[in-house]
Design a protein that fits this description.
Helix content: 25-40%
Distance between the termini: 23 Å
CATH superfamily: NADP-dependent oxidoreductase domain
Number of strands: 13
CATH architecture: Alpha-Beta Barrel
């Protein structure tokens, strides 16, 4: 498995990451044991980056990952967690929360569900229109200082937001990834077309930030049939229903 460095001072991770959202009902029913087997197969294949969100299955996904990682060396994997999306008991989406107090509360719950002492990459899933990005990311920076988070990420942001976040004080070197939904065609699987604006793609390298598109394979035709089995990880045909595979693009100086 090829490795990529996140940002200019971030960790080395596998070029492919395992997105775990589909293991908690996002694309229909999922099988717990098969999901755990898929995570194990990914780790065995050299994948080191696992992506989740605290709102995937209202915490179910984090607890599932915790179960799968029980007994696995902490040095073998990194966990990226998105936070902030608000949901109701019927699984509806009711908003986003990015206030500093909420950021720290979400983090406390995620650490408990995952059974971890720290989260490798922590990032807001969306922007809170009522809270400056500096406040949201600044709260994560407080948690970096406290040892509960290693690196800061962003998701679904524009170039100006990325610029403001990267321009902030000491923690700018901890800002390592900007995620965006992607699409690709089976005729050109290598050329990933980012659904986020081209200005973000061009801004990320100059800010020392790695652009990590999501759903690059699972949401497109190159994923192949919707197979829900861990063996497809080993054979190179990722199961679209159970996981997404994420590309980490290298940062160019």
């Amino acid at each position: 498995m090829q490795l990529r460095q996140l940002g200019t001072q971030g960790p080395q991770v596998s070029a492919l990451g395992l997105g775990c959202m589909g293991m908690s009902g996002a694309y229909g029913p999922s099988d717990r044991q098969e999901s755990i087997a898929t995570i194990h197969a990914a780790l065995d294949a050299g994948i080191t980056l696992l992506d989740t969100g605290d709102f995937y299955g209202m915490g179910h996904n984090e607890m599932l990952i915790a179960e799968a990682l029980r007994g696995v060396s902490r040095e073998q994997y990194l966990v990226s967690v998105k936070f902030g999306a608000l949901r109701d008991p019927a699984s509806g989406w009711v908003g986003f929360e990015g206030r500093p107090a909420a950021v720290k509360t979400f983090l406390a719950y995620s650490l408990n569900r995952l059974g971890l002492d720290y989260i490798d990459i922590y990032r807001p899933a969306r922007l809170d229109p009522n809270v400056p990005i500096e406040d949201t990311v600044g709260a994560i920076a407080d948690m970096v200082k406290a040892g509960y988070v290693r690196y800061i990420g962003l998701s679904e942001v524009g170039a100006e937001t990325l610029r403001r976040a990267a321009a902030s004080t000491w923690w700018a070197n901890r800002l390592i990834i900007a995620g965006g939904t992607t699409s690709a065609s089976s005729s050109d699987a290598v050329s990933i077309a980012c659904a986020c604006s081209s200005s973000v793609a061009s801004r990320a390298p100059s800010s020392g930030v790695t652009l990590r598109p999501k759903l690059a394979i699972a949401a497109s035709a190159i994923a192949g049939p919707n197979r829900n089995d861990s063996e497809s990880i080993r054979t190179g045909s990722p199961p679209a229903r159970i996981c997404s595979i994420e590309f980490t693009a290298p940062v160019h100086s």
